[in-house]
Amino acid sequence: MECFRNVCRECATEWEGINYCVRCLSRRRAAATTRSSLASYLGLVLACALLFALGVRTLAWCGGVVSHLL
């Protein structure tokens, strides 16, 4: 546990193989939720940027093919 308090087996909650008191567990869960939300947001932004760049390239390629055929 992070607070180093003595907690009985009935009061402790095991998470990722470590026993936590109620206060430490709530802090740990809040931190894990914040990190996963930030990672999801950054992943979404990166995917959108990649799709936008791919779309621009595809449109430029299509424009070149069409002008070559005319």
Walk me through the structure.
With 70 residues, this protein is mainly α. It has one domain (13-69). 69% of the residues lie in helices and 9% in strands. It has one helix at 22-69; strands spanning 13-15, 18-20. Strands 1-2 form a two-stranded antiparallel ribbon. Strand 1 (13-15) and strand 2 (18-20) form a beta hairpin. 3% of the residues are buried. The mean pLDDT is 79.
Please identify the structural class as seen in this structure. Answer: mainly alpha
**Major sheet characteristics:** 2 strands, antiparallel
Question: What proportion of the residues form beta strands (DSSP E)?
Answer: 5-15%
Shape: rod-shaped
Radius of gyration: 25 Å
- Written as H for each helix and E for each strand, in order along the chain, the element string is EEH
Helical residues, percent: 55-70%
Q: For the residues shown, what is the average pLDDT?
A: 79
Q: What is the strand and helix layout of this fold?
A:
Layout: E1 13-15, E2 18-20, H1 22-69
Antiparallel strand pairs: 1-2
